[in-house]
Amino acid sequence: MNARRLRIEGRVQGVGYRAWMVREARRLGLAGWVRNRADGSVEAIIAGPEPAVQALLTACRRGPIAARVDRILEDFTDLPEGEGFDQR
Q1: What is the DSSP string of 16-28?
Q2: 5-24 tens-digit pLDDT
């Protein structure tokens, strides 16, 4: 399993980005979480097989219809605790 920490910038709060990401991550069988940050960005930890991680990264660049993703900062990180993918 591979794990990434993402920071997604743009118009990503108030547009259903977190709920959309939860659905996409669960569909791909990924573990982790997603949450809003005080600076207006969205932060997430995603973990799973590399093809599924890459599929979610590709989807995150588009996001839901109302979102506008300007930039995604990505770093490797430790695996999240627990199973499943949650919104915080």
Answers
A1: SHHHHHHHHHHHT
A2: 999 999 999 999 999 999 99
Query: What is 53-74 written as a DSSP string?
Result: HHHHHHHHHH-STT-EEEEEEE
User: What residues act catalytically?
Assistant: 18, 36
Say what the pLDDT of residue 7 is.
98
Radius of gyration of the chain, Cα coordinates, nearest whole angstrom: 12
- Mean pLDDT for all residues in the chain: 96
Specify whether the CB–CB gap between 73 and 6 falls below 8 A.
Answer: yes
Task: Report the SS3 class of residue 13.
Answer: coil
Between 73 and 83, name the one with better pLDDT.
73
Question: In terms of Cα–Cα distance, which of 49, 58, 64 is closest to 10?
Answer: 64
d(CA 12, CA 57): 15
